[in-house]
Design brief:
The chain has about 200 residues and is α+β, with helices and mostly antiparallel strands. The chain is built from five helices and eight strands, in the order H-E-E-E-H-E-H-E-E-H-E-E-H. The structure holds 5-S-methyl-1-O-phosphono-5-thio-D-ribulose (MRU) and zinc ion.
Length: about 200
């Protein structure tokens, strides 16, 4: 096996395991969610469209370029590929992107009518990029859902580089990222925890 093949296999395994983890947590119901990883050589590995993300195999991971085009003609990458590649294009430090549809994120995004959900005073805020204290507010932007992903990407674009905790799409789900898969998964777990806390507090 070449070094390039081994690197691809590692990335595909990380994606498969991330899907299993997200499924265990209930964040990818039915065929929801998508997962990608940028390799050191710049190749982008992403889940194919459809299929359950808890039951992925490496055959469900395909290569796309930075503009979101599958390298192999006829392969169908995630319907939301452009939301991944725009993050990679904007920041060379990003190495993994995760998208899930949790109950807390979906419900909160439909109840809150503001353009962002503020998260304040939580110790777990320190899981997000650049955060060193609980004594702060991190805003999670809320974008309107759109089946036209290219158009949705243009709405997200002006916010790139200014979303330490990721973002929410209304009635749809969350996007988070990190330098590697472990960091992206930790941020997703942190964000889901904080969204669940926000939802619980709204019931008191
Ligand atoms: C269960 S429908 C969910 C899809 O419409 C979409 O939002 C999603 O997250 C998964 O799409 P996919 O094309 O498999 O990456
Ligand atoms: Zn989705």
């Amino acid at each position: 096996m070449t070094e390039m093949d081994a690197a691809w296999d590692d990335a595909a395994s990380e994606i498969v395991r991330a899907g299993q983890r997200m499924d265990q947590r209930g964040w990818v119901p039915a065929t929801a969610g998508n997962i990608s990883r940028r390799l050191a050589d710049g190749r982008i590995a992403i889940t194919r469209s459809g299929g359950h993300k808890g039951f992925l195999t490496s055959a469900d991971v395909i290569e796309v370029d930075i503009d979101g085009r599958p390298r192999v003609e006829g392969q169908r990458s995630s319907a939301e590929t452009l939301l991944h590649t725009q993050l990679y294009a904007a920041d060379p430090a990003i190495g993994a992107v995760l998208h899930g549809h949790s109950v807390a994120g979906t419900v909160l995004s439909m109840v809150v009518r503001d353009a962002a959900i503020p998260l304040s005073g939580y110790e777990v805020l320190k899981v997000f990029e650049g955060q060193v204290t609980h004594d702060t507010t991190v805003e999670v932007p809320l974008f309107e859902n759109d089946q036209d992903i290219a158009r949705l990407a243009t709405v997200v674009a002006p916010h790139l580089g200014r979303m330490p905790a990721g973002y929410l799409i209304r009635g749809h789900g969350v996007y988070v990222w990190g330098a590697d898969m472990a960091t992206a998964l930790a941020r997703l777990e942190g964000l889901e925890f904080l969204l669940a806390c926000t939802l619980e507090r709204s019931k008191l």
